[in-house]
C-alpha cells in the first residue's frame, strides 16, 4: 500500500514538474541587434530557451511586418557565462519592415510547441539613428554623436571600447543611457571625459545592468563617452543603443 502511494506521489510530482518545465521554459533572453531600422530587411537573432523548436515568429499587432525563420540551433556557450542563465538556443529570422513603419517598440511572439514567448524590439527610422564607425577605440578616432540620435554600436570582442564625441553646452544637464539587447549577456558601462581627457563621470548599473548617467559640464566643448563591457567581454550578443539627451528641468 505504502509503495503504491509513494509511486502515485512520485508520478504526480514528476508529471507536474514535467508540465511546469514544458509550460514555463520558453523564454527570450536577448536579441541581436538591439534595434532594427524601418524600411530595411533586418536580420534578427533571438536567444533564449526552447527557441530552436520554434516554427513561427509573428507580430500580433502589426500584420504589415513579416518574418521568415532562416536558422534554429543550440547556442554555443559564451565565454565566462552559463547557458543555463543566458539561454541555450537561438533562432535567426529575416524581418521585412515597411519604410513608413514608425519608430517605437515592435511586439513579437516566438511560437514553439512548448508555448509562446513574447518580446519587444526597438525600431528606429534612418533619420533618428546612426551606427558607430570602427575603429573608435581612442579619443582621436571617436565616432561623432548628435544629441537625441540613437547610436547603434557593438562591443565586438573582448576589451573593445567604443569612444564617442559630442558637443556639450556648459551647465546643461544631460542624460546618457545605454541599452543592451540582452543585459544577461552584456554588462555595459559608460565613462565620460572632457576635451582635455579629464575624467568627468561614470556609470555601470542603473535600474538594470544597463547604465544611465546624468551629468553636466562646466565649459562648452567636446565631451567623450566611452562605452565598454564592465567585464571586458565582447562578442556577437553585445550590441547596444547609446543616446544622449538634454534633461528638461521642471518649471
Ligand atoms: Ca571599438
Ligand atoms: Ca552595467
Descriptive notes:
- This protein is mostly beta strands and about 250 residues long.
- The chain contains 2 helices and 18 strands.
- The protein folds into 2 domains: about 25-125, Immunoglobulins (Immunoglobulin-like); about 130-245, Jelly Rolls (Sandwich).
- About 10% of the residues lie in helices and about 45% in strands.
- A 5-stranded mixed β-sheet has the order 9-11-18-13-16, with no helix packed on it.
- The longest helix is centred in the first third of the chain and has 23 residues, at about 1-25.
- Residues about 5-25 have low confidence and may be disordered.
- The structure holds calcium ion (2 copies).
- One calcium ion (CA) binds near residues 187, 188, 205, 209 and 230.
Q: Quick recap of the structure?
A:
This protein has 251 residues and is mainly β. It has two helices and 18 strands.
Total strands: 18
Beta content: over 45%
Task: Please give the largest β-sheet.
Answer: 5 strands, mixed
| H/E series | HEEEEEHEEEEEEEEEEEEE
CATH architecture of the largest domain: Sandwich
Low-confidence region ranges = 5-23
Average pLDDT figure? 90
List keywords for this structure.
251 residues, mainly beta, Jelly Rolls, 5-stranded mixed β-sheet, 18 strands, binds calcium ion
Layout of strands and helices, then pairs:
Blueprint: H1 2-24, E1 27-32, E2 35-37, E3 41-49, E4 56-58, E5 66-74, H2 83-86, E6 89-96, E7 104-112, E8 115-124, E9 129-131, E10 143-144, E11 150-154, E12 162-168, E13 174-180, E14 188-194, E15 199-203, E16 212-215, E17 221-229, E18 239-246
Parallel strand pairs: 2-8, 9-11, 10-12
Antiparallel strand pairs: 1-3, 3-6, 4-7, 5-6, 7-8, 11-18, 12-17, 13-16, 13-18, 14-15, 14-17
One calcium ion (CA) is lined by residues 187-189, 204-205, 209, 211, 230.
Amino acid at each position: 500500500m505504502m509503495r503504491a502511494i509513494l509511486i502515485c506521489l512520485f508520478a504526480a510530482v514528476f508529471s507536474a514538474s514535467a508540465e511546469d518545465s514544458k509550460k514555463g521554459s520558453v523564454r527570450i533572453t536577448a536579441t541581436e541587434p538591439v534595434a532594427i531600422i524601418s524600411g530595411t530587411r533586418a536580420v534578427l537573432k533571438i536567444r533564449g530557451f526552447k527557441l530552436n523548436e520554434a516554427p513561427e515568429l509573428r507580430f500580433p499587432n502589426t500584420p504589415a511586418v513579416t518574418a521568415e525563420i532562416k536558422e534554429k540551433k543550440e547556442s554555443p556557450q559564451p565565454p565566462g557565462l552559463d547557458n543555463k542563465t543566458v539561454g541555450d538556443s537561438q533562432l535567426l529570422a529575416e524581418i521585412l519592415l515597411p519604410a513608413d513603419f514608425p519608430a517605437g517598440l515592435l511586439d513579437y511572439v516566438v511560437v514553439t510547441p512548448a508555448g509562446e514567448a513574447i518580446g519587444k524590439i526597438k525600431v528606429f527610422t534612418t533619420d533618428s539613428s546612426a551606427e558607430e564607425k570602427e575603429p573608435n577605440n581612442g579619443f582621436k578616432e571617436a565616432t561623432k554623436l548628435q544629441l537625441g540620435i540613437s547610436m547603434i554600436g557593438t562591443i565586438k570582442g573582448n576589451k573593445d571600447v567604443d569612444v564617442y564625441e559630442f558637443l556639450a553646452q556648459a551647465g546643461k544637464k544631460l542624460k546618457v543611457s545605454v541599452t543592451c539587447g540582452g543585459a544577461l549577456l552584456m554588462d555595459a558601462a559608460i565613462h565620460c571625459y572632457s576635451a582635455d581627457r579629464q575624467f568627468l563621470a561614470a556609470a555601470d548599473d542603473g535600474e538594470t545592468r544597463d547604465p544611465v548617467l546624468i551629468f553636466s559640464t562646466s565649459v562648452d566643448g567636446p565631451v567623450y563617452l566611452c562605452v565598454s563591457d564592465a567585464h571586458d567581454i565582447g562578442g556577437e550578443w553585445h550590441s547596444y543603443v547609446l543616446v544622449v539627451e538634454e534633461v528638461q528641468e521642471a518649471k
